[in-house]
Design brief:
The protein is mainly alpha-helical. The protein contains five helices and three strands.
Length: 170
């Protein structure tokens, strides 16, 4: 590897390490406050270095300014999903419209697609059942009919989070 490429890799790793460190410190402060800050700093630094060096970098990163909007969407949909489950548990006669739907994923491979597959199960009445071998289609089990509008909305939120333009796929 030439010195320019080596320098760029080093800068990218340093940037990733610092980003992870800041994120972990914010979580530590939110959960524990300033008490034990230096202990939290030590563990956050260790985790950031390990994470940035052992986990391969991908070309797509979360845009921090877009994280609050996604967090609000995530919390609202999580509560909607929890309420739906509770209603179905206490009202067994609620109608079910069971479906298996193949959803063509428009997000690129990597972190955005992984996040979509993981979060789909938090939408009301949905479950990620399988991902096709090529990774371009997600099989979704739905209790409430067609889940495509909700999944499309989730996909759009993730695209905004990663600054991905999905207009070509519409």
């Amino acid at each position: 590897m030439n010195s320019i490429a080596s320098n760029l890799v080093g800068q990218t790793t340093l940037r990733r390490t610092l980003s992870i460190l800041v994120a972990l410190l914010l979580v530590w402060l939110a959960l524990d406050g300033v008490a034990g800050f230096w202990v939290g700093f030590g563990f956050a630094l260790l985790a950031a270095v390990v994470g940035a060096t052992l986990i391969p970098a991908e070309g797509r990163f979360v845009r921090p300014a877009r994280l609050p909007a996604f967090a609000v969407f995530f919390v609202i949909e999580s509560f909607r999903g929890a309420i739906d489950v509770a209603q179905r548990a206490f009202r067994p006669r609620m109608g079910l419209d069971l479906q298996l739907v193949n959803y063509p994923i428009r997000l690129p491979a990597g972190k955005p697609r992984t996040l979509l597959v993981a979060v789909v199960s938090l939408l009301p009445g949905t479950l990620s059942a399988a991902l096709r071998a090529d990774g371009n289609c997600l099989l979704i089990h739905s209790l409430t009919g067609n889940p495509e509008p909700a999944v499309r909305s989730l996909e759009a939120q993730i695209a905004r989070l990663f600054a991905i333009d999905l207009t070509d796929g519409d």
